[in-house]
């Protein structure tokens, strides 16, 4: 049986995470939040005080070993997912801006990306997978039947992110978030390995002026037409 794969790539705050979860639920497919893996690795390396010394070859080797052996569990709870790192619940902390920055640093290093490759591919299980990230279509699952690139203006992404973080009880300022988003976009798009960009055969959706239901409809109409029958 062919495993059906839907990839959803795009910059931070484009709504990928929410949409990927809804689409996975709609088709009853598995879900890979690849950004969470980079965030978990960023958190783990930060806890071990290794992030500032990645240019040191021995430290980097140690980090590759850590990346390959990360002890991660994704557990369903109600409508959501709980993420454990080394047995501890890190669901909330990995979503902070600070850990987002750590993830972005880690994600720019080719050997660390390579160390997470097989772990990501292992999520492709029957009947199918929705994979959300930056390089799902270009690098991890080039064979995907459905490739979607979801983008939005930096300003509208910053507004959404502020609402999301405020909903988590965090005190944040729009200008700080916008600056973070612009810096992370630049780093994600300009890195030499697996930069953020649409696959040649991706369906591109700009969600700046669309709500979640409108984007969901565009995505499912497209997927219905392209998934193997
Ligand atoms: O989607 P996110 O904000 O949780 O991702 C966190 C960081 O990880 C972000 O800087 C981009 C990086 N990332 C990546 O390089 N490749 C992926 N497939 C997913 C995320």
TrEMBL record:
Residues 6-223 form the Cytidylate kinase domain. ATP binds at residues 10-18. Its main location: cytoplasm. Keywords: ATP-binding, Cytoplasm, Kinase, Nucleotide-binding, Transferase. GO terms for biological process: nucleobase-containing small molecule interconversion; pyrimidine nucleotide metabolic process. Its EC number is 2.7.4.25. GO terms for cellular component: cytosol. It comes from the Bacteria. This is Cytidylate kinase. It comes from Acinetobacter silvestris.
């Amino acid at each position: 049986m062919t495993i059906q794969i839907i990839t959803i790539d795009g910059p931070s705050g484009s709504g990928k995470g929410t949409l990927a979860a809804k689409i996975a639920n709609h088709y009853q497919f598995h879900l890979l939040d690849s950004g969470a893996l980079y965030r978990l690795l960023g958190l783990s390396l930060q806890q071990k005080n290794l992030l500032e010394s990645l240019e040191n070859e021995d430290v980097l080797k140690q980090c590759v070993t850590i990346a390959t052996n990360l002890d991660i569990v994704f557990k369903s709870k109600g409508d959501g997912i709980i993420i454990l790192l080394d047995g501890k619940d890190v669901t909330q902390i990995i979503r902070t801006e600070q850990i987002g920055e750590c993830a972005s640093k880690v994600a720019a290093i080719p050997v660390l990306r390579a160390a997470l490759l097989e772990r990501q591919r292992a999520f492709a299980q029957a009947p199918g997978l929705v994979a959300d990230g930056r390089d799902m279509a270009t690098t991890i699952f080039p064979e995907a039947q459905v490739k979607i690139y979801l983008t939005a203006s930096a300003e509208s992404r910053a507004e959404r992110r502020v609402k999301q973080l405020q909903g988590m009880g965090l005190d944040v300022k729009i200008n700080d978030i916008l600056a973070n988003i612009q810096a992370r976009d630049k780093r994600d798009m300009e890195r030499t390995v697996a930069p953020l960009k649409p696959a040649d055969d991706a369906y591109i959706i700009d969600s700046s002026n669309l709500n979640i239901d409108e984007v969901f409809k565009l995505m499912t109409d497209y997927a219905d037409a392209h998934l193997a029958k």
